[in-house]
Amino acid sequence: MDVDLVKALASDKRLLILEWLRDPERHFRPQRDGDLVRDGVCSLFIAEKLGVSQPTCGEHLKVLAKAGLIRGTKIRQWVFYQRDEDRITKVKEMLSSDW
Description:
globular, three-stranded antiparallel β-sheet, alpha+beta, single chain
């Protein structure tokens, strides 16, 4: 079992972020830069919705990215995050198998 993955899944806040990113148009208002679906969600919006500071949110996003569950794309000075659906599918298969 991947320690980074276990760490990423061990936080209710990180699980919320993954849930919100599954359907970003439902959970976030439109952005000025970047399309919610095509480009991802700005980290500022995620921090706001999570009710935490930008640095705290950044740490959550860093843990999720290190586990490969999300990926970030820089547009201008902001980073926009999306789920890595291929990795998430593999993780779900791994967690549902015997280990």
